Amino acid sequence: LKDGEVRDQDTEWGSILPNGDGTYYTQASIKARPEDKDKYRCRVEHASLAEPGLFALEPKSNLLALVLWVVVAILVVVAALAGFVFWKMQQDERAKRARGYNVAS
């Protein structure tokens, strides 16, 4: 439904497919602009429902993207710290050589 009006002409219907529990489902989809998302509702009719259900579009969770960004940020910080420690050790070794110390091999 868009603004309470049935929009069957805009609906693309998928096949009837099985669920793992022996029941079946079908998919329906439409193309809509993101700014119109509040105008749409999905009407579901099913024998198990006393009356048809109306469902609003729920935004997708960005949790996975957030977790990935945090992991990448942590890896970048760890790599930068490891690089700094390695660089500092190299600098200290060069300074010792410049002062005449020989590091035993």
TrEMBL record:
Gene3D superfamilies: Immunoglobulins (2.60.40.10)
Broad class of where this protein is predominantly found: membrane
Coiled-coil ranges per UniProt: none
Membrane spanning stretches: 63-87
Pfam families in alphabetical order: C1-set (PF07654)
InterPro entries linked to this entry: Ig-like_dom_sf, Ig-like_fold, Ig/MHC_CS, Ig_C1-set, MHC_class-I_related
Name the record gives this protein: HA1F protein
Organism of provenance: Upupa epops
Gene that this sequence comes from: Ha1f_2
